[in-house]
Write a structure and sequence with these properties.
mainly alpha; Spore Coat Polysaccharide Biosynthesis Protein SpsA, Chain A; three-stranded mixed sheet; 6 helices; about 45% helix
């Protein structure tokens, strides 16, 4: 899966597929975040960088993962993942991607990431501040649903196969 905003280099897709074919990962994410300097020099707005880092750190702490970025639009999934995760219950908006990763953690899939160069260019689409805030709120809502499901306080449809 590659978001159609021209930010990512699709020629790296075979590397993602190899990690899945060899059974190293069930899901591979393309990370735009190697260094703060590189990320910001690629054109990522500062508010997106700060929000990305905050959410990723929080998500890693809660889920036990160690991903460098949860909010990438460059991903590869194994067939087994697509057959198991109830993604049809997810949002039709941007928060779909966050819901999907929380579901992957819930169902015990192995998630890894690879660094990918990224570019923010004028011709590329980009989520504006208002939609970014909505996405962040939706991600935090999903995080709470994940926690409450794990603690067995609620049964959330997203995590029921």
């Amino acid at each position: 899966m590659i978001h159609p905003d021209y930010q990512y280099d699709s020629s790296l897709a075979p590397l993602f597929a190899t990690l899945i074919e060899k059974g190293i990962c069930d899901i591979v994410l393309g990370s735009r975040v190697r260094t703060r300097k590189e990320c910001l020099e690629s054109g990522m707005p500062l508010y997106k960088y700060v929000a990305n880092r905050f959410l990723t750190i929080l998500e890693n702490l809660i889920t036990g993962q160690n991903l460098s970025e949860w909010h990438t639009g460059y991903r590869a999934y194994s067939r087994r993942v697509l057959e198991k995760i109830p993604y049809r219950k997810n949002s039709n908006g941007f928060v779909f991607d966050s819901q999907f990763l929380f579901q992957a953690v819930h169902f015990g899939f192995k998630i890894g990431d690879l660094p990918v160069p990224c570019r923010y260019i004028r011709e590329a689409s980009s989520v504006n501040l208002s939609r970014s805030i909505g996405y962040g709120i939706g991600t935090i809502k999903t995080l709470f649903q994940f926690i409450l499901q794990r603690l067995r306080f609620i049964r959330c449809d997203l995590f029921e196969s």
